[in-house]
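User: Predict Esterase, PHB depolymerase family's structure from this.
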Amino acid sequence: MNHPFRDMLGEATRLTQGGHLMAATQLIQRALRGDGGTAPVPAASPPPKRPGAGVVIDAEARVIHDAARPAGHPQADTSAPGHFAGAEQWLRASHSHQGRQLAYRLYVPPAQAAHAGPRPLILMLHGCTQDADDFAAGTRMNALARDAGVLVLYPEQVQRANAQKCWNWFKTQHQQRGRGEPELLASLTRQVMAQYGVDASRVYVAGLSAGGAMADILGRAYPELFAAVGVHSGLATGAASDLPSALAAMRSGAPAGQASGLALRPIIVFHGDADSTVHPANGAAVAGAARGSSPGQTTADRAPGGQRFTRTVYGAGSSAAAVEYWQLQGAGHAWSGGSAAGSYTAPGGVDASAEMLRFFLAHRQPPRH
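Assistant:
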């Protein structure tokens, strides 16, 4: 991170600690746009609206303090993971592949007799401007994973690859098997699987916004690796091939592109119908590309917090649905049911993390012949 950008975020942190939340938000927005200077915007001024242009695919940012930890993970923080020794761990490490390096956090739940044997793994891909700690805090996935005996892997996009730390889902070289970010993320996943003895039939990928778009790409490009996919407020594989087409898809929606040779995986999709950052039509496109001609069964209900939603299930078989599409009424561009400890969350809505985990654990890779 360059020094001006770091200084601006440091000043934003101090403003937040002093209770000047509006000024802190404006300063963060200036930092993300690359404006110079470190002087804060007066707290009395209304925050500027974020433009639809640019590669930022998220809503207003919140400052996440170092003291804010995702519920359910331990206080210990080791520099590099070792073989699982039975203790709950929240690890920080890095992975190198084909000349590229990727930092990540890994949540390892404690050993429990109820979850003996190889355990599942979820790869969680953050949205733009986020990092692993922020995403873990906002989704609360570690707390849920602890009870279910699931490992959770949070890679972090580097700023030199994308100025806003977005996964480059809209570039052709990052939409293919064996190339770019999909290959790097698949390599990281395989390393963690081998190192921790993960159940190869129960490996999943989920993401928010740009991370959701990349999750869809990974599920299609590496169907032998990921048994199911979760996309929250994301876009379909092939919806864009460059920045202009990405902005158009975000603004107006786009059908899934030509994903020749890419397989389909069971998928669960969440999208708010009031999302002004990634058009709601994109969520429908993700689900539509996966369901094919399967008929759907739609039910309408209300979450415990009062949020209305419709849930459409496609291809329900004897054990599990192949596709679930959740339309969240009145919801914007945020992780539904998340925690206010993280950015881009909508506390009180449908618990997307719990529903994803439930959906994932209902699916396994089919036996190989």
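Residues 180-196 form the longest helix (17 residues).
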